[in-house]
Write a structure and sequence with these properties.
Length: about 350
């Protein structure tokens, strides 16, 4: 499944890429993907879906069982990591604790034999670019999580990669800082004009960052599209449930996904199509009220949720145990593949 039309230049192309270990099902199973040059791509899915293995194969940190990896039409499948034109930002940041921020950033140039003055000059320029120049002489233990991440980004960029690979780079940060760093990553990606490939298990993170989302499960790609496309038109029941905010309703002819903010609730059916339900939970969330319900569709009983604007709930509150009728406009029901 392509992430972009064939005419769009691809920074990275995966062709029948597979990773098998000694036993069990393939970790990554014959996937095909084109990632447009200069785009922000998020690989998203539950633990064990193959997203991190895919990223490590692109980076050269994991061998490929079969298939090919192309970077700007150059086959890099068998090249060592340092020769690929990619750089990796790790979840743990992986900074050297005994080195200053400046020397951490300059380290790869030191390994290449670049003189101290020149490597420090390049490292200083990058630290200034990520607003860390004033802390260049501090060691990682003297920096906050967000500051360490900026140093890790500068260290990755000093190799002048064509593609930056990010392995759950925000997961170690607290929720407030995570949101702040999301905005910074997006800004840096646009300013640098690089292709970012970012692995995450957070649906919210992927939707906030990505031009292209690649949803994986059991080693295969199940849907590729923009965040808007995937959220509003999930291809399967798995994607609808994984993305959250949807109810999957069996209608007899098949299953449909309906966003919980598109559900309508009433004390009686009034002849409108829908399903009967009982209120099981009421959560006040500020701008909206989230109702949990036990509904009965053509497949049987199931838990569903309805998001009501605060004003709508205030004008018609519902009580625990109350019997109601759930309905939805036909154009809000998205048919799911079997």
């Amino acid at each position: 499944m392509d992430a972009a039309a064939p005419t769009t230049p691809a920074a990275v192309e995966l062709v029948a890429l597979t990773k098998r270990y000694a036993q069990g099902a393939p970790a990554v199973d014959n996937i095909n993907l084109r990632i447009a040059s200069g785009s922000y791509c998020c690989l998203l899915g539950p633990s064990g879906c193959g997203k991190s293995t895919t990223l490590r194969m692109i980076a050269g940190h994991e061998t490929v069982s079969s298939g090919d990896i192309l970077l700007e039409n150059r086959n890099i499948t068998q090249l060592p990591a340092a020769a690929r034109g990619t750089a990796m930002m790790f979840q743990s940041f992986a900074l050297f604790p005994h080195l200053t921020a400046l020397d951490n950033v300059a380290f790869s140039l030191k390994m290449k034999g670049v003189g101290k003055a020149e490597r420090h000059k390049q490292a200083s320029n990058l630290l200034e670019r990520v607003a860390m120049g004033h802390l260049a002489q501090r060691k990682p233990g003297e920096l906050s999580g967000g500051q360490q991440q900026r140093v890790a980004l500068a260290r990755a960029l000093i190799t002048q990669p064509r593609v930056l690979l990010l392995d759950e780079p925000l997961s170690a940060l607290d929720p407030f800082l995570r949101i702040q760093m999301r905005a910074e990553l997006r800004r840096w990606q646009k300013e640098l004009g690089l292709t970012f490939i970012h692995v995450t298990h957070s649906q919210e993170e992927a939707m906030a960052l990505a031009d292209t989302m690649v949803v994986m499960n059991h080693g295969v790609i199940v849907q590729v599209g923009s965040p808007h496309q995937i959220y509003n038109a999930p291809a399967t029941e798995f994607i609808a449930q994984f993305m959250g905010g949807h109810n999957v309703i069996a209608t007899g002819a098949g299953k449909v996904a309906v966003r919980n903010d598109h559900m309508q609730i009433a004390s009686s059916s009034g002849g409108a199509p829908g399903v009967p339900a009982t209120i099981t939970d009421v959560e006040y969330q500020g701008t909206y009220v989230l109702l949990g319900l036990q509904a009965k569709d053509s497949a049987g009983a199931k838990s569903v949720s309805v998001m009501l604007p605060e004003a709508a709930y205030a004008s018609q509150p519902y009580l625990l145990g109350e019997a109601v009728h759930l309905s939805w406009a036909e154009h809000h029901a998205h048919a799911l593949a079997a």
